[in-house]
Design brief:
- Four copies of one chain form a homotetramer.
- With about 140 residues, chain A is of the alpha+beta class.
- The first copy, chain A, has three helices and six strands.
- Chain A has a six-stranded antiparallel beta sheet with strand order 1-2-4-5-6-3.
- At the A-B interface, helix 2, helix 3 and strand 3 of A face helix 2, helix 3 and strand 3 of B.
């Protein structure tokens, strides 16, 4: 099993149209194309959809070392509303601690503008993940 | 149009199974039944699904006054993983400012245990929402 | 050494006028009287002073079990500016995990109004603190 | 009055040893030399001192446009404890909105290692600050 196979099991992200574009140790990039199914009552992409995209990139980056890491707390800031086009999330582990890593995620629209930012703290368990180690 | 009709237009929350149970001025309660479609790669309810539930309750509570309010920043803390049963989010506006309200949301499982907490800051626009005023 | 003696060693909080009023397992209350030394350039109590008060209450509540716990991430929301009177911080551990506890802190002014809220996540080390166990 | 004169009125930051090193539109850098007065009960620099440094850099960056901007919410992540040397905070406005700007702050130690990160949201009032406009 590759790390991509593993993250294909994330049904909630998959149903939201989230795709893993790239993953390296401590780094990941994901995308989500906005469709009407992502709309909130105001007709723009729901905050929960943007969070799901960001959290997925966070999960890929922090689990890239092969050790199970889950999220314990996140902060998300919303800058611009979007109602079409593809969104991109780029996650970088800025603190690669053996127990409590921290990761920054920038979310951009198709023009490359920053539309949201996310910071997450993880907690690593002593459990190896069932995918082949990556570089 | 009632406030419930208005929030029925939130397609992303609706698709995630989120239901508005109760809404009063500055207060809202919502639920989401966990199904396999909510699972992440680890087989438990995805953080993005829990965020969507919390953010929806936040939106109902902060928009309850009839003035358009969107989220500018949120903080979410995850305490327990859940893979079945119904989750509940209870949102209380602790600071009802005319521009930048703040709302605390507690998310509980079917046993009433706190499984996550959420704090959100909104920004009110000078736009009246198209639903009948509530008490 | 009592837990109060231990927290008297917090020189930064002490210099800011922070006082520990009460501490029980998973709970603490602290105060800080605003003086001109707490002012920011705008002539009101600086956010860093309010954070110091809240973080001190968080530290007392989360370390009350006798195991060294430090802060890994916090979120603070500011609702009202204050330039006089005493501020109070009340900290409650809402998630008493053996490694990664979470604590909510409400900060009020002398009229009892909520002027700020704080949520913090701690990390417990396998180190016993040098004070007598409390009830 | 220059912007530096204005921020010299921040008594709490000044007492904590915080210095404004550089300020441009949407950007600021500040420093704080750790002394025993910054210690918490564990003998390392208190979280409130680090927050004060970060919040000061946030305030300088977001107020650099000459319009009064105060903090409404902040998130801080602590990565490493420090007990000596000078800390540096670098603040960048990543979202320069006319009402609700957002700013990222990285805090580093004398070796240039990231020891904390901070994200803050401001709220701009329709009040011009009493200092000469900067480039």
């Amino acid at each position: 099993m590759t790390i991509n196979d593993f993250f294909d099991k994330d049904k909630f992200a998959l149903n939201a149209g989230v795709k893993l574009l790239e993953v390296r140790k401590g780094y990941a990039r994901a995308s989500m194309e906005i469709t009407p199914m992502h709309f909130n009552a105001g007709g723009v992409c729901q905050g929960g959809a943007i969070f799901t995209l960001a959290d997925f990139a966070f999960a890929a980056a922090t689990n890239s070392h092969g050790q199970l890491t889950f999220s314990i707390t996140s902060n998300i800031n919303f800058f611009k509303s979007e109602s079409e086009g593809t969104l991109y999330a780029e996650a970088k582990e800025v603190f690669c601690h053996k127990r409590i890593p921290n990761c920054e995620v920038h979310i951009t629209n198709k023009e490359g503008e920053l539309i949201a930012s996310f910071t997450g703290t993880g907690y690593r368990k002593d459990i190896q993940l069932p995918f082949k180690s990556i570089e």
